[in-house]
Amino acid sequence: MLHYGSVPSPDLSQWDFRVFGLVEEPVRWTYEEFMALPRVRVERDIHCVTGWSKLDMDFEGVPFREVMKHVRPRPEGRFVMVHAEQGFTTNLPLEDLLAEDVIFAHRAGGRDLTPEHGWPLRLVVPHLYFWKSAKWVRGLEFREKDEPGFWEQNGYHMRGDPWQSQRLSTSL
């Protein structure tokens, strides 16, 4: 399954990316402003919770670390809830997002992402299962506690490390 529910069709003239929550000052970018941030290309293996992997996948986009140059999280803001279209969310410790290869991708395999794969913007966290790489990302909410996002509320593991086979929550 590539996604749950319908594929969003965002209006880029109304699209924005927000950073809020436990930050010194909220930040907001329009699509044009976000795409004007420095971009990189990363090549990494990706792993899906369903058991497939794709090796040497290349993504292009804005590094998470670049976004962080514009954000001042408060000391207690150690966790992030990633917000996406249609109310989808996923949770991550800030530490995971600060990995060098975590990006907000708009391209994969040398082409713009398709809507089914997260266009116009998807988070890519290569060291975790791909449900943590939320599609259709619209913002980041810094939080004090690690709280489950959409998939985590529906039985998926809170962390999702593929090397430890952290697929489903052990509490269900």
CATH topology: Sulfite Oxidase, Chain A, domain 2
- Unreliable segments of 5+ consecutive residues: none
Number of individual domains: 1
CATH class: Alpha Beta
The assigned CATH architecture is: Alpha-Beta Complex
Radius of gyration, in angstroms, nearest whole number: 15 Å
Can you walk me through this structure?
This protein is mainly β. The chain is built from 4 helices and 10 strands. The chain has helices at 31-35, 64-68, 94-97, 150-153; strands spanning 16-21, 27-30, 40-47, 53-63, 79-84, 89-93, 103-108, 111-112, 122-124, 137-143. It is globular. The model has no long low-confidence stretch (mean pLDDT 92).
Topology:
Layout: E1 16-21, E2 27-30, H1 31-35, E3 40-47, E4 53-63, H2 64-68, E5 79-84, E6 89-93, H3 94-97, E7 103-108, E8 111-112, E9 122-124, E10 137-143, H4 150-153
Parallel strand pairs: 1-10
Antiparallel strand pairs: 1-2, 3-4, 4-7, 5-6, 5-10, 7-8, 7-9
Could you give a quick summary of the protein structure above?
With 172 residues, the protein is mainly beta.
Tags for this entry?
4 helices, 5-stranded mixed β-sheet, Sulfite Oxidase, Chain A, domain 2, mainly beta
